[in-house]
Amino acid sequence: MLKILQADLGLWSSMIIVLGFSFFVVALDEYVMKPWRHRRWERRAAAGDKEAEELLRIARSAKVVDE
Q1: Is the pLDDT of residue 66 over 70?
Q2: Mean pLDDT within 31-52
Q3: Residue 60 and which of 3, 11, 14, 21 are 20 to 30 A apart at CA?
């Protein structure tokens, strides 16, 4: 039974799996977690949290804008 489930992974297929997972993690952070963090910091800053205000200031200053 285990021999059926075992796959012979070569160097290239292993590299593709690692790269695919890396792109997935980066995309998840960029498009899901970052907006969530910013909304959370904005709520905390609106409630008067100084640390959240500082985090928002740093995050906004790190944005790159092409003009």
Answers
A1: no
A2: 91
A3: 21
Q: What is the mean pLDDT of the chain?
A: 84
Any idea what DSSP says for residue 48?
T
Check if the beta carbon of residue 38 is closer than 8 Å to that of residue 55.
no
Q: For the chain, what are the domain ranges? A: 23-61
Alpha helices in 6-49 (DSSP H): 11-28, 34-46
Q: Are 52 and 45 in contact (CB under 8 A)?
A: yes
Q: 38 near 59, Cβ under 8 Å?
A: yes
Residue 35, by phi and psi: left (phi above 0), alpha (psi -120 to 50) or beta? alpha
DSSP state of 33: I
Q: Which residue has the tokens 């904005």?
A: 42
